[in-house]
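PROTOCOL LOG
Step 1. Enter all chains and additional molecules of the complex.
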Amino acid sequence: MTKWRCLLRPWSSFPLQSLFQWIALLLSLALLDLLLHILLYGHFQLPSGVIPRAGYYTLGAADSRGAMTPMALLQVQMLEDRLGSQLGNHSLYAELDIQLQVGKTPASQYRVAVLQQNFYHHLGLRIHRGRFFSSNPGQLNQELMISHALWNRLGHPEDPSTIHVRLGKQNEWTVVGVLPPHFTGFGVQPVDFWLPPTLLPDGLLRLNTSSDTEPELMQLTLRFAKRVPYYHLLGILENSENLATLMQQAQAVDLALPPMMTSHGPVIINGLEENNRALLSPGLNTSPKLWEKTRHYTQLLAVVALDLLVLSSFSLLLFLLEQLPVRQDEFRLRHIFGATLGKLGWQIFRENLGFVLSVLPLAWLLSRLLFAQLAEITPFSHFIPERLQPPGPALLAWSALVALLLAALLTALPLWALSKRLRPRSGQNSADITEGYLASLFNSLQLTTATAALFIALLFAFNLYRISTNSNKGGEQVHLLNWQCADEDKNCDLLELMALNNEQILSQLAPGAEAAGTGEPLFSPLLDQRDIRLEPMMKTGGGGGRYQLASAHFDRGWLQALNIRLSAGRWPQLSSEILVNNAFLRLQGLSADQILGRQYRQNGARQFTYRVTGVLEDYSLEDPRKPALPRIIFTETASSGTPLRNEIAWKGNMEEKELLRRLRQALNQQGADRLTIRHETLAMRVHKRLSGEQHYAWLIGGSSILTLFLALAGLYASTRHSLKRQNRVLGIHLAYGAHPTHLAVLVISQRMLMLAGAILVAFFVLGMMAPLIDNWLLPLRPWLLPLLAAGLLLILTGAILATVLALRSLWHREPMELIRDG
Amino acid sequence: MSFIECHNLSKDYPGQSALDKISVHLNQGEFVALEGVSGSGKSTLLALIGLLDRPTRGDVFIDGCSTHKLGLGRRCRLRNRYFGFVFQQFHLIGDLNVAENVALPLRYSGLPRHQWRNRVMEYLDKVGLADRENAYPGELSGGQQQRVAIARALVAEPRFLLADEPTGNLDSHTARQIIVLFQTLHQEGMGLLMATHNPDYAALAQRRLRLLDGRLQPNTP
Ligand SMILES: Nc1ncnc2c1ncn2[C@@H]1O[C@H](COP(=O)(O)OP(=O)(O)OP(=O)(O)O)[C@@H](O)[C@H]1O
Ligand SMILES: [Mg+2]
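Step 2. Run joint prediction.
Step 3. Record the structure below.
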C-alpha cells in the first residue's frame, strides 16, 4: 500500500503544478507519438528506394494551334522509341470507358485506366489493400486494381479478389488490390479500375498476324486503338532543366502517322491527323511537389514535437529540482536512518515512472485521434493507408522503453543534486548554487525553443488567418458548375461531355453578363515552357523578337489565393488580355508603364494578339525557392492550350437555383440532357482544398503556442527558484528602504539579459529552420517584419509578466521574513 | 509626544509568543539599551520598531502616526529615512564590496549618485575602514564586518539607529570602540536603541529596557 502511495507523492504535495506538468508531458508525448505514427505508417513503409513524387509531366500531341491533344497509341510508341532513356521513369496512360460486368450486377460502363504498375511505385503510391497487378511485358495478366470508392460501394470485402469482374463472356479478371481512397486517377473523371497495359502496345501490332487471339480481346484492343485514342505518357518530373531539353527533343519527333491497316480493316484514328508534334505539360492536374510538402510537414512536425518534448522534460526537471529543498528533510531523515543513495534514487525513479506511465495511455489515444485526422488530409493522405493495423506488441514495448528512459532521465539529475545536498556542511549551499545555474540554463534553453516556437506559431496563426480569408475570396459569388455522367448512365461518353461548347453554354446562361471564365480546377496551373515569338503591335520599337519564355495558364483565383499580387495594372478580363511578371519586364528592358497596354502577337499567328493589362510580382511557380522565370500569364480562357473540360466558373449575382435551371436548359439544347450537374462555390472548393493545411496549421500553431506557454511557465518557475535563493539579499534591500518595484526592476533586468541571449540563439535556430518553413514564409513575406516585432513584443511581455508573477510575493512579505527564509 | 511609541505590541510565532503587550516609547536623540537573555525577544522587538516585520497585535507610532495602516511605499520610505538597522548577523551582501554594501541604502534615498562616494567614504572613515572600501565581506574579520554594517546603517543619515547586539561577536577591545562610536553618534543627536546582553554596555545608555520572555520587566525606568 505504501508502495503505491509514494507514486502519488508529487500530486499530493504540489497538485496544481503536477497537473500542469502532467498535461504538458501528455501533449508532448502525444505529438511525439503522432510523429512516430507518421514515420511508421508512412515514411518507413515505403518500398525501399522509392521516393514518393506526385509531380509528373504529361506528354501529349500538339495540334496546329499548339494546344495539347491526346495522342494515338502509335504516336506514343514513336515518342517512346525516339526519346528512350530521356523520358526517365514513365508510363503509358490511357483512360476509357468500357463495358464490364462487376459482381452479379448487369454489365455496365466503367471508367478504366491503363497504367504500368511501376508508375505507382515511382509515384510512391501505396495501395490500400492487396497488391499491385503484375505487368510482365509480353505476358497477358488478367489482373486489375479497383478504386477505393468502387470497392466501398461493393461492400468493401476483406479480400478484394472475391469481386468478380467479367469482360465479355469468358474473360474473368481478378481484382488484386484496392487503391488508396484519395487516388482517383490522373484524368478528369474518377477511375474505377486500373489495368496493366500489357495487352496494348505489343498486342495491337501482333493482332494482325496471330489467329489464336480471343475474339473478345481482339475487339477490345481494336476499341482501344480506335475509339478512345486518349493516350499520354506520364513521367516523373525530375527537374525543370531536364524538362526543357526533353521538351525540345519531343518537339523534334515527327509524330505524323502513316495510314494503318489491320486484317480487320483500316484503323481509323479520328481527329488526330493534325497532331504531329509533341507537347509537354508538367504537373497537370496535381499539386506539384506534394511529396516535398509531405517531407516538410513531417520535418516541421518533428521539430515541434522534439521541441515540445525537450521543453516539457526541462519543465518537469525544473519542477523536480524545485521540490528538492522542500523534500530535503524527508530525504535526509531517511538517509540518516540508513537509506542509501541508491534506495533514494529508486524512490525518485518509481515516482517518475508512475508519473510518465500515467500519461502514456491518454497520449497514445490523443495521437491516434490526431493521426486519424492527419492521415485523411492532403500532405499525408497520399501515402498513409486508411486502415491501420492495431498497435502490435512492438509499439507497446516501444512505449515502455520510452517511459523507462524518460523516468531514468528525470531521475538522474535530481539524484545527483540530492547527493550533493546530503553531503555534510557546504553541500547544501553549493547544491543551491549549482541548481540555480542549471535552472537558468534550462530556462535559457526553454526560452530559445519557445521564442522559435512563438515565431512559428505566429506564422502559422497568420497563415491560418490568411487561409481562412482566402476561402472567402470570391465569396459566394463564384459558382463552379460541373456536369458529369449520372452514376447509373451506361452510355454516357465523357469525351462527348467535355466537347460541349462552353462558350455557347456561357452565353446561354446570361447573355452579356460577365463570366469568370471556364475553369480548370483552381489550384492546377498549367505551366509551360515555350518558344514564343513576340511581335509588338505598336511601332514603339523594342520588345519584339523570339524569346524562350515560360507561360502559364490559370485561373485568377489561384493567383489570388496564393496572394500573388499585381505590382501594376489590373487583372485581365477578356481572353485576349494577359499578364506578365516582373522578370519578363527586366528581360524586355521595359518599365511597367511602358508595358501596360502593349500588344503582342504570338508565333506570328495573325488571329492571336494579346494585350498586357498587368504586371505580376515575381513568384516562381515551379519552386518557390528559385528565382522566377520571365513569364507570360494567360487567363484560363485566353489559353490556347485549354484542355477539354466539363466545368464552367460563373461569377455573378444570379441565384443558384436560377443558374442551375439555365445550365440545365443550355445542356439540354446541346442534347446532353442525361448529364447530372454539380454545383459548388469557389469558396467551398478553396476551403476543401485548404482544409488539410488548415488542420496542420492548427496542429503546429497549437503546439507552438503550448510550447511558448511551457517556456513562460518555466521562466516563472525558474524565476521563483532563483528568487527563493535570493530571499535574504532581497530582504536586506527591503530593510534599507527598497520598494518592491525597485527590486522587480533589478530582477527583471537580470532576467532580460538572459532573455536577450535566448532570443539571439532563437533567431539563429530560426535561420537554420527557414528552409523548413519557407513554404509558409513566402506568401507572408510582406508581414515578416511586423510579425517578428509582434513576436518580440509578445515574448518580452510574457517574460516580464512571468517574472512579475514570480516576484509578487515581495509585495506581501516583510523584510525580516525574507531574511530569515534566505 | 515621543518619537516612537509602541502600544501593546505582541508578536506570535506558530506555537509560541515572542512578544507580549509591549508598550514603550523612545524619544528623539535618546540612547536606550535593550537587555534580556537569549530568546527573550530583543531582535523581534527591534524588527517591529524598525518596520521590518508586522506585529500580530498592537501598533507602532512614529512621530505620532500609526504605522499599522501605512501603505507599502510609506513604510519603505520610513525604513530608509528614519531608521538605520544593524543586524545581529551583519547581513552584508557577499557579491558586493564594502563600498557597495555601504552605499545600498543610498540607492533608495534619492541622493544624487555623484554624491554617493563622498557620503560612503565619510561613514567608512567614521568606522575606521576607509582603506578597505574595495574588499569583499568574505575577506573581512567579524569586527570589520560589523563596522561595515554600522556604516551602512548610518549612511542614509537616519534619525534612529536600531542595533541588534552590535558587540555580540566582538572582542572587548573592538566592542569598546563601537560603543565609543555610538556615544559619539548620540552626542551628535542621533537616537539609538541597542540590544545587548552585556550589562556594562547597557549601563552606558541613558535608559535601560529589560525583556524577559517577551515581556518588559517592571523595574524598567
Ligand atoms: N521565525 C521564528 N519562528 C518561530 N519562532 C521564532 C522566530 N524568530 C524568533 N522566534 C522565537 O521568538 C523568541 C524571541 O526570539 P528573538 O530572536 O527575538 O530573541 P533574542 O532576544 O533576540 O535572542 P538572542 O539574544 O539569542 O538573539 C525566541 O523564543 C525564538 O525562539
Ligand atoms: Mg537576537
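Step 4. Note key features.
Residues 55-288 of chain A form one domain.
Chain A touches chain B at residues 728-729, 732-740, 742, 811, 814-817, 819 (CB under 8 Å).
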